[in-house]
Amino acid sequence: MGGCCPPMDLMRSEPMQLVQLIIPIESAHLTVSYLGDLGLLQFKDLNADKSPFQRTYAAQIKKCAEMARKLRFFKEQMNKAGITPSIKSISRADTNVDDLEIKLGELEAELVEINANGEKLQRAYSELMESKIVLQKVGDFFHVAQSRATARQREIESESTGEDSIDTPLLRDQEMAADPSKQIKLGFLCGLVPREKSMAFERILFRATRGNVFLKQTEVEEPVVDPASREKVEKNVFLVFYSGERAKNKILKICDAFAANRYSFNEDLGKQSQVISEVQRSLTELKTTIDAGLVHRGNLLQTIGEQFEQWNQLVRKEKAIYHTLNMLSLDVTKKCLVSEGWCPVFATKQIQDALQRAAFDSNAQVGAIIQVLQTKEMPPTYFQTNKFTSAFQEIVDAYGVAKYQEANPGVYTIVTFPFLFAVMFGDWGHGICLLLATLVFLVREKKLSGQKLGDITEMIFGGRYVILMMALFSIYTGLIYNEFFSVPFELFGPSAYACRDLDCKDATTVGLIKVRDAYPFGVDPVWHGTRTELPFLNSLKMKMSILLGVAQMNLGIILSYFNAKFFKNGVNIWFQFIPQMIFLNSLFGYLSLLIIVKWATGSQADLYHVMIYMFLSPTEDLGENRLFPGQDKLQLVLLLLALVSVPWMLLPKPFLLKKQHEERHQGHSYTQLETTEESFQVEQSHDSHGHEEFQFSEVFVHQLIHTIEFVLGAVSNTASYLRLWALSLAHSELSSVFYEKVLMLAWGFNNLIILIVGIIVFIAATVGVLLVMETLSAFLHALRLHWVEFQNKFYEGDGYKFFPFSFVVIGDEDE
Hints:
Blueprint: E1 16-24, H1 25-38, E2 42-43, H2 58-81, H3 97-160, H4 172-176, E3 187-194, H5 198-208, E4 214-219, E5 224-225, E6 232-233, E7 235-242, H6 245-257, E8 261-263, H7 272-325, E9 329-330, E10 336-344, H8 348-361, E11 369-373, H9 389-399, H10 410-424, H11 428-443, H12 445-449, H13 455-462, H14 464-481, E12 497-499, E13 512-514, H15 533-566, H16 570-601, H17 607-616, H18 631-650, H19 652-664, H20 677-689, H21 696-720, H22 723-747, H23 752-790, H24 807-812
Helix pairs in contact: 1-7, 1-8, 2-3, 2-7, 3-7, 5-6, 9-10, 10-14, 10-22, 10-23, 11-14, 15-16, 15-21, 15-22, 16-18, 16-19, 16-21, 19-21, 22-23
């Protein structure tokens, strides 16, 4: 940009160079590790034709992946146990990777064994708990049944001692005298069945045995831990009596199908208390054992948690190092590794220092060699940003990464983006609210930067400085519009106007007279609330939008000149920059001039009429629409210049590019020619595909499309800037509606409850609509004006980012 201005780090991307490193194998690992700490070298993959399994360090990567799996297993176990890994300052780990691999294997085996034993003990505990419940419930049933049978037996015996009556059964003697060995013996099974399956369980039993069973079910009051699923399940205790082995087999199969757990029950009721006490004792012993196991497991996980982050970082680094080493190629002697990569020119000394330190620390006999390679390959784009400029650079990069060393729109976006936002959001009350919300993030910046935030919160936190600038500019434009939640204030002095007489309560401009000097800054507060407020502000904001739009589009075209000058592309200066400046300013630059002259002179000229008849009838007399002498002749000259600039853009450039191509490939390659972007691209294609014929038709069609796009875009882009007027008007009117129709209406009722409700509704509407939705809307429209209307004048955005090998980036990534 010449010697008049100091160098701007963001204006052009850092000068890059392609370097070749020749590294001895014995120091390769440490060299890559130091380069990862430095984070200023982007390695190229020299083994792109090989699969991951064919590369040199595939076994080491597999080993690192296995260690990473073990660490993920530990993390899952710690999460289940509610243990958080201790976050300490992670220094370089002194642990050897091989020792760590052995240690992780031992810890995993120990933890797996503890988990398996714990599961077995927990299952046995759950089974004993179920057995205890069955013993209690079934014991109660048998006890009740025996009591009833005893009572019934006594009743029968008392009846048999009396004399036989006519009602005594005739066969009683035969029944009592029957052989006991011929009586049918009933078997029984008991256990627990899930309550949701109990009805189906009963039906299937009845159908399978054709009703030849007796089933008794009792609900368990509290859910029971199931031994198989280890989840709490509501269950019923069942007791089923059957006859015969066949029925028993059917019942066993049905129990298995319904996940009904069966438990043994001793028929000898006298031993029940002894069995229950034994079960209770076993439960106590198991509980003690389980608690001891959990304590041991917790201590083990706590020990792992203290070193987890250090181990995790070490494994991530090792994996990244071997991934990078796999991108290097072995030389013929297989004693050295050869790598190529991009680095900034300023980083050469730092890389050399890292190589020397690695050679010394690894006791290598030979140091690594670095040499700069000459290449025509397009280098990556690298901008050095800080926490303030990075968010603005991300806005530009979201559209497209800058081509290597082309002018960066991010420099101007820092000012123009928040300013155009503020033009649409102009209210210093809303700006203060936005500023206070941003200050919360700025005050807690250090704390929040180390936390994991939600998606939306993280996005807002990342753009906190963008929002800060938006808030400050909104306060500025709000002071210009003189709007504080749509209410005007006489901040910079009294109004320049006053009522003509005491009856002037309508506050119209007809009834107002100018009594003092003009209001010193911004819109005079007397305009608000008058009948002519809307026409006045409409005219002001619409003309202001056109002026801002034409100014920013001119800035874009001027930046295309600096691009052409930087790349020494004279063709683009003479046949792109100059005709574009002429065309845009012959039409819309002239319109901007008319707006300024009209404001300065107070003329009543109709600018719509002037611009329309400039094309329809260029020679017609302007009459009362004349703003200055010689305007008619100036319009004719500007119209002719605009017409001439179109073929000026379209025709010469393709022929000049063709001429340059022919001279380059007809034995005159030694001649010093101007290097153009198009010829640079042609050279690249020729280097890779041999000498191809210059496609004149393609170049001409491309230039035709570019010319048509610019001519039509000059009109549509200028009209697009009217969104500044439209959104500013919408914001102002919405704010006015909420103030007058909600807050002031509630105030007029002279009722405290209605006033409180009105204030709540006003705050909710202001925050929800004006501070959230309108902010997002103005942000997106400002984004569009930068991406489309501004950047398409000069910004190609077809580059690719510089992604250096860095451990800082690896630490932020999840596996």
